[in-house]
Amino acid sequence: MEKNYLNRVAWIVPAVVLSLLVLYWLPAPSIGGWQMRKIDLLSDIRNDSVVLASTTTSDYSGGQELDTLVKRGSVDEMEVPVLEGSRLTRGKDGKLVTLEDSIIEAEALKVEKKVGVTSIVDLSEGAAGGMNSFYQALDMAGSRPVRIAVLGDSFIEGDIMTAMLRELLQKRFGGKGCGYLPITSITASNRVTVKQSFEGWTTHKCVDRAGFVDTYNNLTGYYFNASQGAWVNMECRGNAYPHSASCTSSSLYYLGGGGTGSASVTINGTTNRFFTLEDYESVGKVTITGDITSAKWVIDNPSGIVFLGASMDCDNGMIVDNMSMRSSSGRHLYRINDRILSGFNNVRPYDLVIIMYGLNVAGRVASEFTEYSRMMQQGVENIKRCMPGTSVLLVSCSDREERGSNGFKTMKGVLGLIQAQKRAAINTRVSFWNLYDAMGGEGSIVEMVKKGEAARDYTHLTGRGGDRIARLLYDALMLGYDNR
Amino acid sequence: MEATWHNILNFVNSQFGTLDWGLLLKQLTYDENSPLIFSSGMFLCMFSVFIVIYTLLSKRSMLRTIFVLAFSYYFYYKSSGIYFFLLAVVTCSDYLIADIIYTTRSKLGRKCLVALSLLIDLGLLAYFKYTNFFGQLWSDISGAPWHNFEIFLPVGISFFTFQSLSYTIDVYRRKIEPVDNLLDYAFFVSFFPQLVAGPIVRASDFIPQMYKPLRVTREMLGLGFWFVVIGLFKKAVISDYISINFVERVFENPIQFSGIENLLGAYGYGLQIYCDFSGYSDMAIGLALLLGFRFNINFNNPYKAVSVTDFWRRWHISLSSWLKDYLYISLGGNRKGKFRQYLNLLITMLLGGLWHGASINFIFWGALHGVALVIHKMWMSLTRGWKLVNSKVWNVLMVIVTFHFVIFAWMIFRNADITWKGLFQNGEWGNLGVMLSQIFTSFHPELLTDVVTSYWHVFALIVLGYCLHFVPDSVSQACKRAFVKMPAVLYVLVLVILIVIIMQVKTSEIQPFIYFQF
Predict the structure, then answer these.
(1) Range among A100-104, B446-450, B480-484 rated most confident
(2) Which residue range forms the structural domain that includes residue B96?
(3) Measured between beta carbons, which residues in chain B are less than 8 angstroms from residue A459?
(4) Structural domain tally of chain B?
(5) Among partner residues B54, B255, B500, which is closest to A158 by beta-carbon distance?
(6) B368-406, pLDDT tens digit by residue?
(7) Are A437 and A118 in contact (CB under 8 A)?
(8) Closest partner residue to B41 among A23, A42, A405, by Cβ?
């Protein structure tokens, strides 16, 4: 009878385990510039999260320039990256905090709190750009449209987040329709609030490597050239968000300076109307009203006109515009054209502009954040100047994580970027909302991935995740409004 | 004594740095999010202790049975907590029912008894897996309100209920005799290698092995490690890496990717699901061999199939043969005319689809395969005697066609966001619709080089995976034989190297998200 080899199994398996345990003590080699990870069979039961001590007892007394601290090496003990030129002070609990954090924290103490809600911090001290004018506008939502523009990147692409924010606001303050849309969109088929189709357009985006003319740069970062007969069709969809099921007006937006053109619109597949596209000095708009479920705009004579977008709106109540641009960092706001921005605000006045960028910058090195902060500040200043009286809310970057040898961790860049965003809000005296904190901070995107609320790149949201973030933002806005 | 213990702990602590004994305790108790999977370090450590004790008990079969049983129940507890009692319920009821069936003479009595076994096993399966699904479906169709119950889905319930059913039905069909005692039956139902993810082992294959003396031959030793190594590589290297770094993100948000990326994502998913599932089966087969048990193979290079029929002889063989023997044949198989045969095929595949998960996309997936099987059967009878269909070129062509059909079906399989309401009221195909529209209307072939070079790790693995899959059988058999003949100490080396690689993959940085659609 053949020998029984069970004994072999009983030494081979433990030998494998022992060899792997021994490997833990060997240094991990690097092969051709690639650093191997440490072999740690017991990583599941190892707890080596380094405690970031706040035990700097040096002669430091706050207010020192960062450079000095870097030389002493004490900045390593900070829990957050520090921007170039930032100052460090001691927080209430004796911990070192950046100047940005301490200002935001101090302002946050002044506003009303509610469990589960991350408050909006208003840094305007009542001046223009703060939240007050938006909250006052909300009181008038019964008699006029109250508009919000949400500027962002792929995080909110396809009406993610904004669809639910709009729905919640329209539920409370009234209003219909999905708001403003750039004429073409790569996510047109995927938007749950509107079915958009189009033909005959040339699309220009501010993130294009070539072909984008700064003269036409506007709030969305998109502009379009039409061929004769070019059309865009928008059908309301209310399955998921019932308030988007219909609207009461539809408009077409274009830039002046291209001569006089003409367009026609078909409403609900039947009613036709013709418009002359007059040559305005800055931004022109033509509007049709009625009980609208679909609107198809056709450009009969494009002349040389540059088009901006179309909208599905309401006469009163809330209008929330999703102005997202994939892979954008918001840089186009920095070099926006003043004439177009104020012209646009004249024909489509906004009560609140929400700025939420960052994911496309978070991968960068910390030294670039200071520059990013400066650029954002200029962008916010441009908005404040061209859209006087409009509230501006700067939203921090969301949690984005990367995987290291001990599982997922928030990208270091995210924390540095949030410092830059805080600085921009402080310096421009607008409002700031910390989305990273609201989501749950470190590890929150990992949790969201588990719940199907975020994609497996540990960066982007799913529709459900967007809804969750929208509720968080809505709660923050309503907390501010109810305690205005 | 206490001081010595303290010293030992201190020594271990200093050697291992930062081991957290609280975490160890947590690892050992039930955690929904960390089941004991074969490719984890935790399992390896536990198995090494297990195998030593198992070997020490090799001559004491009663004690060994109790020990393995206890370990299997613990293994199940780790992933499903208190629900291990379900295992006990299924075990006891089927054991008793089979015993009574065996001694019952009346035909009707036997029928009633086997029906009772079906009722209990499928009832449990239906309650835990399908209650909310059917409730929701009914509500979507009728408009009546439905609130989902909070029902926990016990891991592997679809596997062990089917496995246990094979026993009662085989006793009913007088193919096998009942086991001697409850303990032996419990051992069969809960044997941990195949407990949570198959293969579905038949009582008629397994139980006779239990009554033979425990013996691991040299060939079983080599084959056991071979299957473990192959399985680990498929599951923990190929599948895990390509899924997190490319495939999953395409399927989760296809609109953010061009058509070419969606197509590559679909090809990637074909490899991912094969490597994930068959890799896990391989490990189960390997572990069982190392413990002295032979299971049948569960996957046989399924993408080499020349037809859908052939595919189902190669894919998840233990399920497809189970469905054939216990469902298709019970429905009448091919004994009641062509029409009934086609209908039986369709019903079998539809239910087979539903077995994979409580969601409408699985039903579509099953139905699509069912229709394809029927069409293939018709095609077969139509082309009987044609020379063309036996040529080599034709076969290659058919492999390509079958592969693409299967990949398309996987796209349905993977997109669980298709709902009855969405589909029949709004005509929405969810992400499946988006993927297809991206592939057919926004393909962007010019991005191919960009995509492949940016994700080159992923595509290198995908190409490697498919190449290994399509290697001629003679080559893979030769490799297998060479591995089996290797000295045992080399098994240690191969395993250590493989695990080092797996750890590199497991902790590697996630490939950043890249947009190509500028």
Answers:
(1) B480-484
(2) 35-210
(3) 513
(4) 2
(5) B255
(6) 999 999 999 999 888 887 877 778 899 999 999 999 999
(7) yes
(8) A42
- The answer to whether the CB atoms of B434 and A41 lie below 8 A apart is no
For residue A66, what pLDDT band results from cuts at 50, 70 and 90? very low
Residue B14 to chain A, least CA–CA distance (Å)? 12
**In this structure, are A302 and A208 located in the same domain?**
yes
Contacts of A189 in chain B (CB under 8 A): 255, 433-434, 437
Residues B281 and B142 in one domain: no
**DSSP secondary structure string for all residues of B371-385:** HHHHHHHHHHHHHTT
Specify whether B356 is catalytic. Answer: yes
Shared-domain flag, residues B181 and B256: no
Element (H, E) at B89: helix B84-103
Interface test with B, best of A24, A456, A460 (most B CBs within 10 A): A456
- Answer yes or no: do B485 and B345 share one domain: yes
CB contact under 8 A, B19 and A45: yes
Whether residue A368 is contained in a domain is answered as yes
Listed residues B147, B175, B210: the one ending a domain: B210
Which single residue is written with the structure tokens 């949400």? A150
CATH code for position A217: 2.60.120.260
Whether residue B170 is found in the same domain as residue B236: no
CB contact under 8 A, A6 and B41: no
Residue A169 lies in a domain: yes
pLDDT score of B154: 83
CA A230 to chain centroid: 31
Name the β-bridge partners of A233: A197, A296
A:B CB pairs within 8 Å: 164
CA distance, residue A37 to nearest chain B CA (Å): 6
Q: What is the pLDDT of residue B8?
A: 75
Chain B closest-CA separation from residue A360 CA (Å): 10
- Among residues B6, B147, B316, B356, the one annotated as catalytic is B356
The boundaries of the domain holding residue A304 are 194-315
Tokens 């239990």 label which residue?
B210
Do A362 and A481 belong together in one domain?
yes
| A305 and A329 both lie in a single domain | no
pLDDT at A367: 62
The torsion region of residue A231 among left (phi > 0), alpha (psi -120 to 50) and beta comes to beta
Identify which of B488, B510, B512 has the shortest CB distance to residue A12: B488
SS3 A229: strand
Is A201 found in the same domain as A338? Answer: no
Task: Looking at the structure, tell me whether residues B57 and B113 fall in a common domain.
Answer: yes
Say if pTM beats, i.e. exceeds, 0.90: no
- Indicate if A100 and A121 belong to the same structural domain: no
Count of structural domains, chain A: 4
Instruction: Report whether pLDDT(A62) > 70.
Output: no
Q: Which residues of A touch B283 (CB under 8 A)?
A: none
Q: Is pLDDT of A69 > 50?
A: no
Residues of A in contact with B214 (CB under 8 A): 4, 6
Residues B74-111 have pLDDT tens digits of 998 988 888 888 999 999 999 999 999 999 889 999 99
The one-letter amino acid at A366: A
- Can you tell me the distance from the alpha carbon of A240 to that of A254, in angstroms, rounded to the nearest whole number? 31
Considering the domain architecture, whether residues B114 and B185 belong to the same structural domain is answered as yes
| CA distances (Å), origin A26, targets A19, A30, B72 | 11, 12, 35
Task: Kindly state whether residues A203 and A285 are assigned to the same domain.
Answer: yes
Q: What is the mean pLDDT of chain B?
A: 88
CA angle B444, B396, B235 (to 5 degrees): 70
Cβ–Cβ gap A37/B504 under 8 Å: yes
Q: Which residues of B touch A43 (CB under 8 A)?
A: 41
Does B290 contact A154 at a Cβ distance shorter than 8 Å? no
Tell me: do A368 and A440 sit in the same domain: yes
Place of tokens 């007969």: A229
Q: How far apart are CA B43 and CA B49, in angstroms?
A: 10
Question: CA neighbours within 13 Å on the CB side: how many for A317?
Answer: 23
